[in-house]
Amino acid sequence: MPAADDSKRKAARETIVGLTEANSQNNPANLLQQDILHEISTLLNTNLDRQSLSYCVSLIENGVNPEALATVIKELRVQNTRYEAERGAAATEQ
Amino acid sequence: MKSLSGNTRDDSTFGGLRDRTIKSLREGGHGRVNPFEIKDRCAGLVEKFGVLNRDDLAGALQSRLDSLPKTRWNPDVLSLLLQLSNRPLESASLSDLDGLTTVFSPPTELTWEDIVADDPLTDEDVWGEIERGYHSSGDEEAFDGSNSEPTTSTQATSFAEDDFAALARLHIVKPDATLLGDVRTAQETLSRPSDNSDTNTMSELTLIRETISMLRGLPTYLFSVGTGGVVSISSNLCIATASKPMLNHVLSNFAKIGSQLVFLRHWTQQKRSEAYVQSIQAAVQYTTSAIDLNIGRLEQRFIEPPDSCVVSLIDVRIEVEDFTRAAIHLSSIIVANDRTSNGNESPSFALLDALYEEACIADMAGDTHLFSAIAGALLSGVRTYLRPVLLWASSGDLPKQDADTFFVRLDEEDCPLGEIWHKRFALRLQSGGRACAPEVIQPFIQQLYAAGKEKAFLKLNGHEADESVVDIVSLAARLSMATVNERLTTNSLMPFDELLRELLQDCFGATRPPDTTTSRTVMLEHVDLLRHIHAFDNVFLGNAGMSLQAFTGSLFGLLQRGSSSWHDKFFLTRLAQSTLGTALSVDAHCVSVSVLADDKPARGPVSRQLDRIKLAYAIPWPVQNVVRSEELHTYSAAFSLLLQIEYAAYVLRPQTFDLRKLEFGWRSAGPALQEALSLRARLIWFIGILRSHYGTVITTHANGLRRGLEAADGIDSMAETWATHDKHLRLCLLLAPNVAPLMDAVKHILRLSQSLEDAWPSLLDQSTSLTAVTRMAAEFDKNLAFVTAGLRSVSRAGGETALEALAERLQWNAG
């Protein structure tokens, strides 16, 4: 039942994201924590913006392994670099 | 995914990328994050920053790590960040943090659009006319304020307000009358008259309330105050928690304490004339005030009880006995003192003595609380008593107040100046010969008496005591419990009586600073006592031989010529001033001569005439205080003796020349003349020994007197030295009454010179018989033997070596 699974998955994801957003955005303690984590992230030169960092924190709070997440982020950055390079080459040819 | 990869949902690769991402996230094989390892890695990173000279990054990172709120996901998030860190040493800087601060946005202001959107102005009444007179102060309808509460601002600032009750209502807190309901009920029960058979059962709290009121001295229903301030239990009561005998015992204990407190309170209110008693009353009042404070604290405990407060009469009794112990002891001391002094008219310091004794006992017993109370009362009384004492010791002035109980009294106010020191003041003695002063002052009585006399003497002598005024109040204030405690801190084993004696000694010593002028200084330096003593020796005792010879030569010549002017005192005074007055240290104008009246005719034996001549010296009044007399009787008598000796030598001298005029030579002289010559030789020998004895005695005694006067510390010592000298001089010169027979014998021998001189012309022409001369010689021998024997016995009895020596010399050469 892929459709039912998809809808269920979608609803669950929205709920989780909504809850995370609500918790991360409205709770003052969380806001403070996010600020401090963002500052640490800046000091460590991780190149994560605030939004991305908050998504990462949410994923970790939902059980994602941080090592796996770090690996995924690195791969996605590589993909981004390749994508940017291809777009740049295509723009030059035109 | 969009922010990291840049792909959007529209991209063809988005789906594959998403699946790969999800698959990677779901993959296992990754170990759990070790929080300790993450903590160590963070600490190592901070240390690395510090070592590589990036202290700014190290401090910033450490501060963020410390302030990070602790959650269970912190290690995981930090692990992610550590894995994603990309050369922070080279790339990161603190300025990047500044871009992270969010700008404060003020809250949005409320606008009319928001108000109108919320509540549109569609109501018809909104645009209607308003009643403008609603808040006007000129409105004719009076404002009815009877139902409204008065305001403080209006009422309190009105000056001409008649309703003071309303004003007071604003400031007075009305107590809740119902709170005293239980108390009133209990009091009504107590006030009901009860028979012996009828006992009222009261609560313990009621009894405690009554007891506390009684201890404060207030009238109560439970206790009654009888004559003499004796408190007794007046109601027949019992309580549910104790038996009647026990309750009566406890209440009677309270009654005893109350009686003594009542006595103390009455005693402190009594009018007493003695200043030191008033001070003790003040000290005792302080003690009773402290008791009242303690009773107040005790009462407070029952008015505002803490969470667990036990109402117990026994506890109250233990507390009350503890803080009233000192006051009860004081009360017993005062009661005992009042009992012994009732009917006793003589001034007494029994209260001070009793306090002193009890303070010493309390100190020995180590009871510091009791000691503090008793010693405090004692010292307050002693401080007040000391003020007139210090005034006396520092200025010689007697106090005007309490003069009847002061230990010094004015004995002879109008006594002559020469007796000021010995007769003006005297010690006031009680029965038993003890000075009228408290026990603590007794060891210092003589010292204080002499000090005050000295100051009075110096004032009369023109030496105002001390340029530096002694502050009596501050000196007396040194005797305080603070000073006692300070001394006990440094020397805790010192007994209180010794400590007090030390404090008093310091206090009295401060009245005589080291540079004070003393009577000794004044007598020796200003009055020049030793010069006057030297003058006495020169005038009376023949120390100035030339002056004496000049005087006696003129005088004897007048006497032998039979001149009538010799008994003219003015002439003799002029003669004495011109001869004796020229000696060293002598003030000529002080010398005077008088002649005593005599019934016998003026022309009698010269030796008898000489006895009528009296030499006097005007002694300054300060010196009179030392010699204790206006005249020097011993010295005058010594001068008379000296005149006799000199006259005897004077009449025997010229006869030497007469021998040369003999035509037949003295070898062929008759037996009478030869006997006369022998008698003359013996008389000359006797006179020589007398002169030698006279000179030796005077010189020896004069030196001793001078040394004694220089070593004396005051006028009393000087007077004592002079009296001793005078007594010895009288004895050695045979002027004392007990040796008058010896003096008569000596004078009889000396008069033999006159007899020999009278018979000399007839001896020369050999008309005098041998019998007459032999009789004279026999008298000489008889008197000499008598004098010698008398001198021996007197010297053995009195121990005078000078008389022993004189007797020896007379005996050696007489044979």
Task: Give a short synopsis of this structure.
The complex is a heterodimer of chains A (94) and B (815). With 94 residues, chain A is an all-alpha fold. Chain A has helices spanning 2-26, 28-43, 50-61, 66-93.
Describe the fold and architecture:
Chain A contains four helices and no strands. Chain A is extended, with a radius of gyration of 17 Å. Chain A is mostly helical. In chain A, helix 1 crosses helix 2 (28-43). The relative contact order of chain A is 0.07. Chain B is mainly alpha-helical and 815 residues long. In chain B, the strands form four sheets. Chain B has a two-stranded parallel sheet. In chain B, strands 2-3 form a two-stranded antiparallel ribbon. In chain B, strands 5-6 form a two-stranded antiparallel sheet. The radius of gyration of chain B is 57 Å and the shape is elongated. Classes of the chains: A mainly alpha (94), B mainly alpha (815). The A-B interface holds A 29, 32-33, 35-52, 56-57, 59-61, 64-77, 79-80, 83-84 and B 1, 3-7, 13, 17, 20-21, 24-25, 27, 30-31, 33, 57, 60-61, 64-65, 67-69, 71, 73, 76-88, 91-92, 96-97, 100.
In CATH terms, what is the fold-level topology of the largest domain in chain B? Answer: Four Helix Bundle (Hemerythrin (Met), subunit A)
CATH architecture of the largest domain in chain B: Up-down Bundle
User: Alpha-carbon distance between the termini of chain A?
Assistant: 46 Å
Which series of helices and strands of chain A comes N to C? HHHH
Q: Give the mean pLDDT of chain A.
A: 76
Q: Average pLDDT of chain B, to the nearest integer?
A: 83
How would the global form of chain B be characterised? elongated
CATH class of the largest domain in chain B: Mainly Alpha
What strand order characterises the main sheet of chain B? 1-4
Derived structural class of chain B: mainly alpha
Total helical elements of chain B: 35
Low-pLDDT runs of 5+ residues of chain A are none
How many H/I helices of chain A? 4
